[in-house]
Amino acid sequence: MNIVTNKKCILILLSVLCIYLNVHAQNVDSSNFTEDYVKFTKDQKQFNDWSVSIYGGVPWLITADFTSVDNGASTKWRVGYDFQASINKQISHAFGISLLGQFGESRQGYGSKKVDAKTNYLAASFLGDLNVSSLFRRIDNRSSYRWAIHAYAGIGTIQYKAKTKAREQGETEYSTTADVDMGLKSVFAQVGPGVTYKINKRWDTSFKAIYVMTGDELFDGSGNNGHYADLHKGGKSDNFITTSFGLTYKIGKHNEHLSWVDPLREMFTKINDVASQQQLEVCVFGDKDDDGVCDDWDRELDTPKGARVDGSGRALDVDFDGIIDLYDKCPTFPGPASNDGCPEPQKLADDAINPLIATMGGIQFNLDSDKILLESQPILDKVAEVIIKYGKGTRFLVEGHSDARGSVAYNLNLSKRRVTSVIKYLVSKGVPPYQLTGKGMGFKNPKYPECSPASKCPEWKNKENRRVIFKLLDSVE
């Protein structure tokens, strides 16, 4: 009976093994594996992942024969110091590791017997950093991300020299009770929580409370072999807490650090982008002018190279003066070809009579952002130049618009933020602030009103709805 049972078990195991090998062979098919495989390189990095930190704080002996806080007849606090420095490597958005060095001095004692002790220490450790906030952050959370809760755990080695002075026994000088070097015999573990605040793209500030487990009974200075047996019961493992405030500088050329990025949100956005792209047809007749618009629906097949185009393949002319933006030195102000597309001083003065004429639109933003796109900054530079050169004595209304995503109140607030970004940018370029008046419109007057909801339109139309435009107002008195 056992032989039959064993044979059945062997046959079942062989069947499972065959199924596994068959599936594995399909998965490692070279044609499927190499078709979409792209090796990640350093040049593809978008985020910084190195940083350095410094901390300053206080160590507190809490589970030891001699402690930092005595709760006897009168509470006595013995305050030491602790300094830390670390080099940090962010592995993912939620986890990083640190090489940590620290030195300090703990102060402790046995108050009822009038015993004072101090321990000078030097430690080196590896510390794991789990960003709990990033780990549990929702992919549809669009709120500002500046606070994060962390959990730390690590292991290291410590050297220390503990000294004790028993005043009740007449001792006036500290005597050494323990002198331990770094090594396997002085390995310690540590664990604890922390909270981090993002000051800006380069600096963070943190507070953390780390529980250090030394694993010995000599760190507190209570002695060995009964040296101070008459002063304490003995037998407690000497553990302490370090409470520290610190600053972190994020190293690298990129604008953002990996610890403040949620890749699930990036993936969520890319999935939507891919889904929208899959709805587009493949270019059947090619793209002769290389403007990104297929010839089978390109209404301008000879677009000059380098010109920005709209969805129909026509070169953009934002100010509608008949000169495309590629050749227009003032792409947001209408002007004659004789003046390279820039308005003549007298013409701008004439436009000031009718505030509905002069329109300088086209400043665009990313989805759910008030950050000006890099491609729009040259346009704003030209706007600033023209206002400074020709716009003296005039005022301009800066209108902010959004696409249909989000609630009415949220879109109104977002458009106001975009207006503020543009005004700050123009003022930084020398435009007098009294010449600019801002107004948020939300989705009230979109360029493409049919894009409600936003899913009804291709992304380029929603992108143009997320814009800021300018209107010439009455003259300044």
Question: Your description of this structure?
Answer:
The chain has 477 residues and is an alpha+beta fold. Helix 6 crosses helix 7. The radius of gyration is 34 Å and the shape is elongated. Strand 4 and strand 5 form a beta hairpin. It has an 8-stranded antiparallel beta barrel with strand order 1-4-5-6-7-9-10-11. The chain has a 4-stranded mixed sheet with strand order 12-15-13-14. It starts with a helix and ends with a strand. It is built from 8 helices and 15 strands. It has 2 domains: 214 residues, Beta Barrel (Porin), CATH 2.40.160.20; 160 residues, 60s Ribosomal Protein L30, Chain: A (2-Layer Sandwich), CATH 3.30.1330.
Name the features.
477 residues, alpha+beta, 4-stranded mixed beta sheet, Porin, 60s Ribosomal Protein L30, Chain: A, elongated
Layout of secondary structure:
Layout: H1 2-27, H2 30-35, E1 50-63, E2 69-71, E3 75-77, E4 81-90, E5 95-110, E6 115-131, H3 132-135, E7 147-166, E8 175-180, E9 187-198, E10 203-213, E11 239-251, H4 263-277, H5 345-351, E12 363-364, H6 377-390, E13 394-401, H7 408-428, E14 436-442, H8 459-465, E15 467-475
Parallel strand pairs: 13-14
Antiparallel strand pairs: 1-4, 1-11, 2-3, 4-5, 5-6, 6-7, 7-8, 7-9, 9-10, 10-11, 12-15, 13-15
Helix pairs in contact: 6-7
